[in-house]
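Protocol step 4 of 5: obtain the predicted structure for the target chain.
Materials: sequence only (see below). No template structures provided, no constraints applied. The aim of this step is simply to have a reference model before the mutagenesis design in step 5. Sequence pasted as it appears in the construct record:
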Amino acid sequence: MNNSYVKTIEEPVTAAAEKPVVEGSEVRYYSRFSLPQRYLHGVIAVTFLGLAITGLPLRFSSTPLALGFARMVGGFGTVLFFHLFSAVALTVAFVIHVANLAYRLITRREYSLVWGSSSMTPNLKDIQDLFAQFKWFFFRGPKPKFDRYCYWDKMDYWAVFWGMGIIGFSGYAMWFAPFFAKFIPGSWLNIALLIHGEEALLAVGFIFTIHFFNTHLRPDNFPMDLTIFTGSQTEDHLKHRHPEEYKRLVESGQLEKLRVAPPPQWLKNFSWIFGTSAIFFGIVIIVLTVVAFVKEVAS
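Step 4 output (structure tokens):
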């Protein structure tokens, strides 16, 4: 679901050890995401869908759709249980990611994660690329040449940090209200409930529209970009989507070190099924959210 949420976690992809190269292959594939990165992205995708599917009925609990869903699964208690379970799983994935970043920065001193080609930190080039792309949209200039991560990748990535901080803290404050009430006024828990619900709506709207479009539905990726699932991309895709990275890898002689065999067909099939299912459920959820929100406002 999300090509940018876990792109700087775990070990950097430096070699093709996971899959040997098949010589004579017509299409060259190069590694982009490691296996741990892909696993963590999968956990985040599944748990976010779980939070959306269970959280929205709780947010719009008085609507017929939410009531019908709750009756179907055994009541709002069941809905809340799976919501909390998804929250814990997502929190664990987030903590693993942050801990890994801290380890790589502090222990291994990989400062390129903060400022470099592998960094998710916004920089001046991202601003220049943003304005250059708008000029390109209106035929006023050439298409910008992106590096390993472009400005929308970084927007997606930092949206997760923002959401985890706000939605996560407010959610745990409500879950463990007696504990938090020892340190904050009780009225703040009511504010936490409001913030949690509204920020969750923002997150659902962003992920199931902007993020899906950026990663899968925009013209040069449509109908789906399988890279985050298979871990590799073709040489043509690397040249087209990340020309600055491709140029740097060629000039440094590092490109062939990332050469891998084409992903097996079963992995492609699984990626299509998983990705298509996520997009389908995401679109259904965003439509139902809009319907529920309109009905709530109208009432």
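Step 4 remarks: Strands lie at 29-31, 232-234, 259-260. The longest helix spans residues 265-298.
Proceed to step 5.
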